[in-house]
Amino acid sequence: MAAESERVDRSSHSMDKSITLPPNEIFRNLENAKRFAIDIGGSLTKLAYYSTVQHKVAKVRSFDHTAKDTEDDPLYEISMQEEMLARLHFIKFENAYIETCLDFIKDHLVNTDTKVIKATGGGAHKFKDLIEKKLKLRVDKEDEMTCLIKGCNFVLRNIPHEAFVYVKHADSEFRFQNTHPDIFPYLLINIGSGVSIIKVESEDTFERVGGSSIGGGTFWGLGALLTKTKRFDELLQLASKGQHTSVDMLVKDIYGGSYGSLGLTGDLIASSFGKSATADKEFSKEDMAKSLLHMISNDIGQLACLYARLHNLTRVYFGGFFIRGHPVTMHTITYSINFFTKGEVQALFLRHEGYLGTIGAFLKGAEEDNPNQYSWGENYAGSSGLMSTSPDLNPMQRARSGTFDMLEMDRLERQLVNLPLLQDPSSYIPDTVDLSEDALAREYWLYCFEEALDGVVKRAVASQPDLPEAAERAEKFRHKYLHKLQTLRHQPFAYGSLTVRSLLDTREHCLNEFNFPDPYSKIKQRENDMALKYFQKAVKSLEELSWEQRQFALVRGLLAGNVFDWGAKAVSDVLESNPEFGFEQAKRQLEERPWLVDTYDQWFERLKGPPHKCALFFVDNSGIDIILGVFPFVRELLCRGTEVVLASNSSPALNDVTNNELQILTERIAAMDPVIQSAVKEDRLTLVQSGSSSPCLDLSRLDKVLAGVVRERHTDLVIIEGMGRAIHTNYYALLSCESLKMAVIKNSWLADRLGGKLFSVVFKYEMPPNKKPTTLDHVPVMPS
Amino acid sequence: MEERNGHHGENEPETGENEDAAEPPPKQSRSRSDESNNFGLDSNNMETTTAGGSATDERRTSTSNYSSRQRIDSLRKIRPPFPWFGMDIGGTLVKLVYFEPKDITAEEEQEEVENLKSIRRYLTSNIAYGKTGIRDVHLEMKDLTICGRTGNLHFIRFPTQDLPAFLQMARNKHFSSLHTTLCATGGGAYKFEFDFRQMADLQLLKLDELDCLIRGVLYIDSVVSNPSECYYYENPTDPEHCVQKPFTLENPYPLLLVNIGSGVSILAVYSKNNYKRVTGTSLGGGTFLGLCCLLTGCSSFEEALEMASQGESSHVDKLVRDIYGGDYERFGLPGWAVASSFGNMVCKEKRESISKEDLARATLVSITNNIGSITRMVALNENIERVVFVGNFLRVNTLSMKLLAYAMDYWSKGQLKALFLRHEGYFGSVGALLELLDPS
User: What is the per-residue pLDDT for B438?
Assistant: First the structure.
C-alpha cells in the first residue's frame, strides 16, 4: 500500500531539532505564498506551495526615430522592469523537523488569504492537529493514489529527463529517457509498505489494477525480525554486503548444474531461503538481508511484468520508499524486470519520485488556477537535483543528507510543444553529446564553465552600473553557480543528462536568480547600433555580385556574422580586447572551403530549383550576426519568393537576439530596405518567439504559437544557426523537411573533437531521409 | 516436506516440446537394452493416460478387463523385470513409488531371487524406514493393474539430505544385482547420478521432471475413482460452509498446473503432450519452511504447520484497515485484506508483542497468497480458468489449500476454480515409473 516510511537518517537522532533554518535557501518566497500542500510519509515530509516571485526582466523599447534621427542616439532604450513570476516550491525534510518548519512558515507567512492546506500520505492524520494549530490552516485530506498519479503526470509532462533507466555498472548509472510526446498509457508500481499497481490511461483515468502485500514493509519487517536491524537504510546496507547463495536454494543446488531443457541456469534461485530449512548453521545478517531483498524484488518484478503483459503496457515506472533513489533496490528491480521480460520492458524510475504525492495534492488544491494548462520548467538554480544514496556517498552529499531537498518549478509564459517538423518526436534528442556518459567531455566543459565564470561575473556587474549592490549579488551568483558545477562534477546526473545546454541553462537560471536578467543588454545594444550602420552598404555590395557569387557570399557573410558570439570563450577574449574586430576581419578568419562539414554544393544546386514555400530560421546572436549575416540571407530568400519566419528567444540568453530586440531591429531595417518593408507589410516575413531563453535549442519544447505558424505556412525549410543551436544541440536532429545547419566552431576543444580547428565551419544541408539523394551520403559525421 | 523443482525462472520459451498434440517424437535411447529393444506396447491396453475426454472411464474399465492369457504372455516378454520403481529427487524430498505385484504365480515365486523378495518385504511390511523415511499408507493404491500386472502402488518419501543413507542401503541389499532400470526425475537425478553409480552401482535413467509430473497427474487421475483423486472446496469464501468436494477432471484442458515444491513451477497444459512452463517463483514451500526455521526455531514442516495453525497473522501483517481504518473503497480493497505482509514488524513494540505461532502463520499466509496471486495473473494472461495445485507444500496443509481456494475465487470473482489432487507430491515419481513401463 502507499503508506510510506522512509529512511531515517542516522544524523537526525543526534541533531538538535530546533535547528535554525537557512531562510535564504529553503522556504523561499514565503511572503506571497499561497496554496499549501503537504505529504507526510513514514519519515519524510514533503511540503509544496505556490508563490509569486518578483523578478527583474530586461525590456527594450524603441525610441521614436522619425522625429529626430541623431547619429548618437542609441537605437532603443533598455529598461529593467519588475515582473511577477509564478513559481512552485517543493521542499522535502525529515519528519523530525516538522515542528521547526511549521514555526518557520508561520513566522514568515504574511499577507496570505490561504485557508486550507491539502494533505496526503500515511502520516497526514498524525500531524493534522499540529498543522492546524501552527498554521491556522484547515487540513484537507486528499486521496493518496490520486495525488500520486497527478504528480506523476505533471513531472512526466513538464520535466525533460524526468525518467531514467538504472544501469548499475555503466559509466553513468542513470540513463535518462526522452519524454515521449504522449506520456500515456503507463503502469506505475508504487512500492510502499505493500505494492500498488496502477494503470494510467489519461490525466483523469487511472485504475488500481492490482497489488501485492509483499513490499517494502515486508522487507523492512521481516528484515528487522531476521537481522535485529531496525532501520530500513541499514537493512539495505546489510543487503548490499551479503551473499544470497548461502541462504537460497539455487537451481544448481537441486540439479548440480543448470536445468538445461528449460533454459534455467544454475545460478537462478529455485527456492528463496530454501537452504535455511535444512542447514544447521547460523546465517549472517548480511546474507539473510540479501536473500530477502532478492526475494522481494524478484517477486515485485514478476508481478509487474504479469500486469504489464496483461494490460499490454511497456512503460513501467517504479516508485515508493522501497525505491526512492536507493541504487540497491533500483538495481534488483531492474534485474528482475529484465529477467522476466527478457528485456522487452525496462524498469523506469523518476528523478522527483519523492515529490509526486505533494505535487499531486498541490495540484488538487490549485485546480482553479488551471496549473495544467501551462508549461512549467524545472529551475536549476533553486532545485537540489537528484542525489545518489549509494553506500559510498561523496562528501558533498553526505553533508546534505538528513537536511533539505528542494524542487522549484517556474511557470513558463508560453505553452511549449514539439516542432511539428520533427521526423520522429519520440526519438528526438536535442543534445549532441551526453556529458554524463562522456567523462572526458564532461571534465572539459565543467572546467570551461568554471574558467569563464570570472568574465560572466564581471559582465553581470557591468550591466548594472547604477545599482551599487550589483557586485555583491554577482558574488552570490558566482558562489551559487560554482556550487552547481561542483555538484555536477560529483553527480552529473543531478538534473538529468548533463549537457552543454544544461550547463548554459543552469547559468542563466542562476543569473536570473540574482536579478541579472540580461548582462549583455548593453553590449547587444552597442553592437546592434553599430551593425545597423553597415546594413545598407552590405546589401549593396551583395547586389553587385552575380547570382552565383551572391549565394556564396550570403552564406559566407552569415558564417562570418556567427563568429561574433560572446558565448564562446575564444571569441569573447578577442572581442573584449579588440572591440573593433570587424566583419571583414571575421570573414578572413573563416576557414576556406572545403569546410569541415561542407554540403554547400548541394545547397547551391537546390537553390537553382524552385523556391521554398516557407523557411523557419532559428537565429542566434545580435549585432553583426543578425543584421549583416542573417538579414541579407533572409532578404535573398524573400526575393526568391520564400516566406520567412524568424524565431528568436523569448527572454535573454547571452548575446542572443531576443524577440523583443528583433522586433525593433526589423522595424529599423524595414525603414531602410523596401524588400524587408514590403515583406513585413505583406506578412511574408514574420517574427515569432521560440519560447526558449537558452543559448541552445530544444525542438521538443517550443512556443505553441510558433508550431501553429509553422503548420499554417507549410514550412519546408528549417535553418538553424550557431554553435549552441546547431552543434551542441540538433546536430543530429532529423526533420521531415529540408534543413540547413550552419555554425562556426569557436571552441578549440570542440573543433579538435570534430577533427577541425578553431573557426572551422559546419555547413550541413540535409534532405529528409526519404528524399535524400545519394550524393549527400558523404557528409562527414561528428565523432561522438 | 516437499520437493523439487520450481525454479525461479521465467517465461522460458515454450520448451518447444510437443506443440503438436499428435504423436510426440520417440524419446531417445534408453541406456539399458537387455531384453527389449521394442517397447511397442499397444497403448490401448495401457491405462496410462491418453488425453481426453470421456475416454477416461472407458480406459479405467478396460484395464481390469484384459483376460487373455496370451496377451499377458506377450506382454511379459516386453515388460521390464521387477522391481518397479519410480523416483523423484527434489530439492527437499525424495519421492519414491513402488509397485508391489500381488499376482505373482507360483512359478514366478520360485524364480524370484531372494534379493527381490527381501526388498518387497522390507518396503511393504514397514511404514517407516530409518529415521526419516515414511510410507504414506493412506495414499496406497490397491489392486491396480498396470502393464498387465496387478498389485499395490506404494508411496514413500524421505528427505533429500538422507539420500546417502538410501544409497548405502541399496548397496547393502545388492540392489544393482537385480539389473533393474531405475527411472528417476527431479533435479537430484542429475545432481546425484554419479553418487548412484559410485555408491550403489546403479545406473539412473534420467527423466524430465515436468514431463513426468504431467504424465503422473493424468495417469493417477484416470485410474483413481474412489475417493476421487481430484477435489475442490465448495463455498471457499464462507469458512462455515467450506467443504471438500470431489471433482471429475473430465476434459481437463487447458489447465494450469501449479506445482509447489521447494519452489514453484506453473505449467499451462493444453493436451497430454502439449504443455509449457509459463513461469515459476522462488517463493515456495522451501521459503515457508526456511523462514519459519529462522523465525521460530522449528525444525520440520509438520512442526511449522502446527505452529501456523495456532497463530494469528493479522498481528504480524498490516491490513488495509490498519491504514485506512476500514475498506479502501476507492479501489475496492476490503479492510481485512493484507496491505503489507510483515508490515507491522517495522515497529519495535509490535515485534515484541507477537508469538512464534503468529510468525509461522504470517509466513504461511504470505507465501500462499503470493502463489495465489501469481497463479491468478498467469491464468488471466494464458486465458485458463482451471487451476490444479499439486506439490508437497500442500501435504497436510489444509490452511494453504483453503487460502488458495479462497484467493482464486474471491479475486477472480468466481471465475477461477482451484483444484487439488490427493497424491499431492508424488506425480513426478509416478510419471517416472510410467516411463519405465511405457517409454513415451
Answer: 87
